[in-house]
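One chain given next:
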Amino acid sequence: MRRSSLAKLIVGSAVLALAVGGCGGTASVTSSDVAEQAQAALTQQVGQPAPPVDCPGDLPAEVGAKITCTISDGTTKYEVYITVTSVEDGDQVKFDVQVADTPVNVG
């Protein structure tokens, strides 16, 4: 049985800080920034390049805000849970990144 290369990513969580944007509405971190930083954190955790993370939308800059992204190695897909843990100085968002223990059922 071949073990997925993504299995190494299921090792815990990472905390990242990002600047937020917001013009007249609720401040948020763009989906592309969240995905990029989550991928970088997962790469650092396992010591090898992680596949790209795909996020469906922006992450509100509010403690407790959550978004479910995905990561795939082409054959196996996992959900990636991202939760805001703090917002500091009004524009620094820290969030936790956690890869699901089991793959998404794709078909």
Notes: The two ends are 20 Å apart (CA to CA).
